[in-house]
Amino acid sequence: MRSVNKYNELVIKYGNSVNFLTIYIREAHASDSEWPDTRTYSIKNHRTLTDRLEAAAGLQEFGVAGRLMVDSMDDLSLLHYGALPERLCVIGTNGVVLYLGEMGPWGYSLNDLEHCLENLIE
């Protein structure tokens, strides 16, 4: 979650030129899954949309800047963008994907996103 601060800085820096949107998807490391228990939080697998909305509210309370939306229980955003556990992308006003970062956590690069935004805004 330390990347939240850097993400929020980008929202502040580029927010007048770019609309930032976070889509909360399926929980990648649910506490009721077989993932090793190294989490500092406890979110169970979402069984209903209400579960997912409640989990997203926790993310919003954590302080993620910009708009926050929630993926459908059919995981349409996750599947369309290959976003499990996370991924950054820039979509142009015409709906064309201008930047699609590597899948996180290792490919999640806010520096690459910022470089892309700098080039687009110039």
UniProtKB/TrEMBL annotation:
Keywords: Oxidoreductase, Selenocysteine, Thyroid hormones biosynthesis. Gene3D superfamilies: Glutaredoxin. The keyword Oxidoreductase applies. GO terms for biological process: hormone biosynthetic process; thyroid hormone metabolic process. GO terms for molecular function: thyroxine 5'-deiodinase activity. It comes from the Eukaryota. Belongs to the iodothyronine deiodinase family. Responsible for the deiodination of T4 (3,5,3',5'-tetraiodothyronine). This is Iodothyronine deiodinase. The lineage of its organism: Eukaryota, Metazoa, Spiralia, Lophotrochozoa, Mollusca.
